[in-house]
Design a protein that fits this description.
Layout: H1 6-15, E1 37-44, E2 50-57, E3 61-67, H2 76-89, E4 97-102, H3 107-112, H4 146-158, E5 162-167, E6 170-176, H5 180-188, H6 205-212, E7 217-223, H7 231-247
Parallel strand pairs: 3-4, 3-5, 5-7
Antiparallel strand pairs: 1-2, 2-4, 6-7
Helix pairs in contact: 2-7, 5-7
């Protein structure tokens, strides 16, 4: 792994300006309306790009959402950026909750428009699941990549009760782990994508965290044409399903505002 250069570090810090500083902690006792979020860097990619994360709220119920683990499936990136705006505009959504967002897990792959990271490894096959398979493209061993290690670190740090990841192009709501089907069905009530279990792939996040470790994992498979949609169009189509995962197990009742205009 290359050490990040000073210009890269400086740019990453600038990205955090207006939050609360790099990796600054949430202060307990301050309401979400007064303390909307903090942000930090979860780790660095092979090519020294920062893996940014944002945390909204400080409640006990934690949901973690991520996108862009496959660089060629990046429609979830603007969708999660738009989710952040929605949480800022609707602090009631954060009552009793913490929402952790990793909008771009594979920044090198997203930049190149390629599925794998800069080492040619599929990050969603690089977790230490019981079914890990060290075939070409999965990494010689689990967690061999800095990006997968950064994801593991954030999940272990925040111990979410559910995880939602955004992929393409299979057009369904997939799920892994005990209790995950109910979350998928709650999301499915707000989208025309069918709820369908595809099965855990070797070394995938769903296999490791969902099946092996018992954290419900939802793989929200956007359609191929989602890449042609802008952030508002993505939100109009899939935002309510995303919010259903945030507020689960409560039903989604909050009327959201239009933002980004």
């Amino acid at each position: 792994m290359h050490k990040p250069s000073l210009p890269v570090v400086f740019l990453a810090v600038l990205c955090l300006a207006g939050c609360q500083g790099v990796d600054s902690p949430t202060v307990s006792g301050i309401s979400p309306a007064r303390q909307p979020y903090h942000a930090g860097i979860a780790g660095w990619s092979v090519q020294s790009r920062p893996l940014m994360y944002r945390v909204y709220g400080n409640g006990e119920d934690v949901v973690l959402l991520m996108a862009g683990i496959h660089g060629s499936e990046a429609a979830g990136v603007p969708l999660l950026e738009r989710l952040g705006q929605e949480l800022m505009n609707n602090p009631k959504l954060l009552a009793g909750r913490t929402v952790v967002i990793l909008p771009q897990v594979n920044p090198d792959g997203v930049k190149a428009g390629k599925r794998r990271n800069a080492n040619g490894v599929d990050l969603n096959r690089n977790f230490p699941a019981d079914n890990f398979d060290a075939i070409k493209g999965n990494g010689e061993e689990p967690l061999s990549q800095p990006e997968s290690r950064a994801v593991l670190k954030q999940i272990e740090r925040y111990t979410p009760s559910r995880i939602v990841t955004y992929h393409q192009p299979l057009s369904c709501v997939d799920y892994d782990g005990e209790g995950a089907q109910q979350i998928a069905e709650a999301m499915g009530e707000h989208t025309d994508l069918p709820v369908k279990r595809l099965g855990g792939r070797p070394g995938s996040l769903g296999s490791y965290f969902g099946i092996d470790r018992g954290i419900p994992c939802i793989t929200f498979e956007l359609p191929k044409n989602a890449s042609k949609m802008n952030a508002q169009e993505l939100w109009d189509s899939y935002g309510q399903a995303t919010l259903a995962a945030v507020v689960y197990p409560q039903p989604l009742e909050v009327q959201t505002t239009e933002s980004g205009k």
